[in-house]
Structure prediction request, 138 residues.
Amino acid sequence: VLVRRCWVLAQELVDPEQPGDFNQALMELGATVCTPKAPACGRCPVQQFCMAADLAKQAKALATDFPMKAKRTSVRLRTLASAALQDGHGRWFFVKRPHEGLLAGQWEFPTVEVDAAEYGNGTSTFEHVAAVKLEELV
Prediction:
């Protein structure tokens, strides 16, 4: 619902012939008037529409009070191996990703995750472990 509302507002505000003019004006406003550390609300041309300025007038908040930033989730590092396979007729082999999760439902070359513990012990190489897993997949 919010995304739809934003698109409706954008279509009302932005000239479809020159959308860059609106974007440039917003960037200029943010760079010169509505700066994060020292907003100049008194000389802002859109002050009457600004929720932050309205809250500041009512002494409920400062224009510089921003919502708390969400904590970033930790990045999970993974080691992947992919195989680009082509048959004798020049056709490429793809597999479809699961319907949920990262890149859901998209097509990709066969790809497997290879855990460093599987090849880091000196008994096998990354290439060998990857090849075995890819053979199992295809």
Observations:
- The chain is about 35% helix and 5% strand.
- Residues 10 and 16 are 10 Å apart (CA to CA).
- The mean pLDDT is 87.
